Amino acid sequence: MERREKLRACEELGDIPEQAYDELLRLHADTTREQVASLTAAFERGDLKSVRELAHAIKGASANLRLDSLTRVAKAVEEAVDRKLPADRIARALSGLRESLSDLEREVG
Of 1.20.120.160, 3.40.140.20, 1.10.10.10, 3.30.450.20, which CATH number belongs to 3-108? Predict the structure, then answer.
């Protein structure tokens, strides 16, 4: 996330300090990592209801933090399940979610 985008997000979230936003991003990365692990396990056992619910939760929290890329890929997972796409298409969407999470983790250190 570019600094300009981060400052805009801070402003949209009620003019919170940049350091507070950075901490929120770290917490979100940690939480999302756990959710993605649970989501992956649910997918592997064929529990698409849980996959959808976890993707929806990730999408909402990411949107609240103005993390557009993570929001977009979580939405893709959710929609893949809703549209009853084949397992390989859902797996590709999950791969995109993991990649976007990795990007966030690199950013927050």
Answer: 1.20.120.160
